[in-house]
Amino acid sequence: MENVILIVHVLLAAAIVALVLLQQGKGAEAGASFGGGASQTVFGSQGSTSFLGRLTAVMAAGVFATSFALAVYAKQKAENVNDAGIPAAEVIESAAEVQQSLPALESEKAAQPESDIPVAE
């Protein structure tokens, strides 16, 4: 279910980008007074502005809804990980024990200095 919501979310985001790029800016209305706006009657007498604006608002609401649903899924996954029953301190201590029990090469032990600060002699 989460994958379906994620795919819908990405498709809605791409659709918003396309719709915003299709819309004309505020300065494009000046050309209509010289006869340039007559070709935009496909969307009605008001042109494509109200149709594309409404469609963009619907897509934005869809992105908001899918974002909210994905946040709910992420919260549920985080709670499930915390409910595993293993406290974090025990995990860190067991990792330190495993690291100390690993064998190290003698050349690696000799190459590591006691301190990073040089000693003046």
Automatic annotation (TrEMBL):
Pfam families (alphabetical): SecG
Localization terms from the record: Cell membrane
Signal peptide: none
Keyword vocabulary terms for this entry: Cell membrane, Membrane, Protein transport, Translocation, Transmembrane, Transmembrane helix, Transport
Regions crossing the membrane: 51-73
Residue ranges that the Swiss-Prot or TrEMBL entry lists as coiled coil: none
InterPro entries for the chain: SecG (IPR004692)
Protein family according to the UniProt entry: Belongs to the SecG family.
Designated name of the protein: Protein-export membrane protein SecG
Species of provenance: Marinobacterium sediminicola
